[in-house]
Every structure is written in C-alpha cells, then in structure tokens.
Design goal:
Elements: E1 2-8, H1 11-18, E2 26-33, H2 40-48, E3 55-61, H3 70-84, E4 91-98, E5 101-109, E6 111-112, E7 117-118, H4 124-138
Antiparallel strand pairs: 1-3, 2-4, 3-5, 4-5, 6-7
Helix pairs in contact: 1-2, 3-4
C-alpha cells in the first residue's frame, strides 16, 4: 500500500474534498472515532477550533493490481497510527472508489486532549515509507 501523509489545516476544504461524490464513483465514511460530532465536517471542525495544522491526513493507495478490503484499510490505519505516535487520537476513515480503483483517506486530530497542543510528528515521511514497505511485504 502506498502511504502519503501531511500535516494540515483547512478542515472544511478537506472535509469537502473527502466527501466529494462528483469526482468519485463511491464515497464511504468507514469510521469517525473519538470526536463529539458523528459526521466528517463536524469532526474536523472540532479539531480546527483548537489549533492550526491540527490534523494529519494520510492517503492509503493499494497497488493497481490489488483490491484492498475495509479490514485492510483499518489494519493499515491502525499500524500507521501506532508508528506515528497517534494511538487513540480521534480519526476518520473515508473510502473513495474512482473508475474501479478503491483507495482510502485517514484523518487524525493531532491535538492531545490533556495537553491541548498538537502532537509532534518527527520523521513521519520515513516512518510511512518503512510502513509502506512492510505492508507491501505482508500482502505479497
């Protein structure tokens, strides 16, 4: 699975992009966890109220010849969460299907609820590269 992540702001624009059913054949909200709101726009707005660059966004793109299951996306998100130091943080998982290609997006709140500050994510690109390799090897 190819993983591409970024620290970002722009809650409303990201939620609009992830829920865009004009450019995607199917959009499925697989999970919204740890937020008060139960919809994507509300969840990302909660994080926005606290900080700038308050989110971490990750794309999960399986190789073109592989169709990932919902469980594959959950597993990849869980492993990324652990590797990045975001365990237990509020997150949302959205699945897009476009022209038969299925991929997912995961968005975490970077805000530590006790400290009320953003969690530092050092070397996230290196960590995601290593995880991408591990996922590739695990799935053949």
């Amino acid at each position: 699975m190819i993983l591409k992540g970024s620290q970002r702001a722009g809650a409303s624009a990201l939620a609009d992009h992830l829920m865009n059913d004009r450019d995607n054949d199917h959009v499925t909200v697989l999970e919204v966890r740890g937020f008060v709101a139960d919809d994507l726009h509300g969840a990302l707005s909660e994080a926005y109220a606290i900080s700038t660059q308050f989110m971490f966004s990750l794309s999960l793109n399986p190789p073109q010849d592989h169709i990932a299951s919902e469980q594959d996306f959950f597993d990849a998100a869980d492993r990324a969460e652990e590797k990045l130091g975001l365990r237990g943080q509020p997150r949302a998982i959205i699945i897009h299907e476009k022209e038969g290609r299925r991929h997912a997006h995961v968005v975490w709140s970077r805000i530590d609820g006790e400290e009320m500050k953003a969690i530092n994510l050092p070397h996230f690109k290196t960590k995601l590269r290593d995880l991408s390799r591990d996922l590739y090897l695990d799935h053949g």
